[in-house]
């Protein structure tokens, strides 16, 4: 419930604070004193839009603070989920700077306006004069019927499943679009893959072929060099190896005579052996060098195929071509598997749709069962509040699956028993809409579990017995939850458990709006003034006392 409302520098209000009570809180006062402005200020902390035009003094910021009891488990969970301290009291604050910039706080933690609205939607239902457009909205009508039918949780569960179904449908559509695009590209990709598979390259094949081809192209020159080298080392008139052998033989004659000759002889022997080995290897290489024209042609053909494919795909190595081949294989495999994926998801979607249809039919039955009792209750209440000829009718039709079932709900209204029912927004006046909304909210208030309900001039266009019945209805509503109502009618004001009077006061030539809670005697006097004018008569005082205490 709303415990306290503090306002600074808002519209005609300089500064005030009011402590509200459980039950029925009534606000009265002179026209223009600022009664509705109180609810306008409260609307700020509920997330309503505001700018610098609401500032009483343009160089000073506006601050509105509301304190609520926060014992509800769902509120505590919401605070925890949003990293906001959860205390016994819930403090909402809205600040409007002179520049028009707005800031919002929950328990002194800065929050967005969206967060503020999300939280307060579970705290307060604010019904302002003629603000009854939601009565004609299907969402509101559905929520009313669901609350009375006791299927709100079932609808929420269904809705979460439907959203999953919608996501699955979207995924299916995307898969089909992808498949369509892939099928368009499939033939070309298959052609590219066939080219690569036909080429059948091995890792590094083109690089190795290029190296081998260089060798074959230079085979004749290399063979000539090798032949000359072997001849120089081992053959001819004066082969190097033979010369070294002769030198070594001559030096060995004197190795016992000169100490250093022995060491040099050993080195010459090693050089002779090494050169002899080199000559043998060169001879082996020379014998294995051949000019293979067929091999050269084969290598040239492979390289031509490879270079064309590299150029075609903008690649530079054999292994890059092989990587492309693997990629194409995967993509074509994905196309082949797409049918299976789509078929599996279609089966899943169909099963989920059948489940949703079953649940939607159950919800429809619950709504259908509640329609007639709801209409009877509302029409009975309409008669109580001075609209005996008015009738509400609920049109419930079924159609395709949607986020809330298969039902299309439409509240129709006939104000004069003409038997011509039309959508509420088209045929009901402002006063009729206000009383109709009160009747409906009185039925669903306990089910939707709002902490506080606020009504701004719910009494518009009524008097006498109808006004009395509106008061009774508000009193009954307040037995279940806190109700705050602005009124001009004594029949309603007399039902107050807490009566607040808004007035203007001259302080040093400055007119300021004030509010105070009336005592029981002051309430009786206020009701008497509402009955007979500023100077109540004895009879009006007696009547007022009976109304307040009766």
From TrEMBL:
Keywords recorded for this protein, A-Z: ATP-binding, Coiled coil, DNA damage, DNA repair, Nucleotide-binding
Source domain of life: Bacteria
Domain RecF/RecN/SMC N-terminal: start-end pairs: 2-508
Biological process annotations from GO: DNA recombination; DNA repair; SOS response
Pfam families, A to Z: SMC_N
Gene3D superfamilies: P-loop containing nucleotide triphosphate hydrolases (3.40.50.300)
Example of a GO cellular component annotation carried by this entry: bacterial nucleoid
GO molecular-function terms, A-Z: ATP binding
Coiled coil regions in record: 268-369
Function: May be involved in recombinational repair of damaged DNA.
Family: Belongs to the RecN family.
PANTHER family with a match to the protein in the record: DNA REPAIR PROTEIN RECN
NCBIfam families tied to this protein: recN
UniProt name for this protein: DNA repair protein RecN
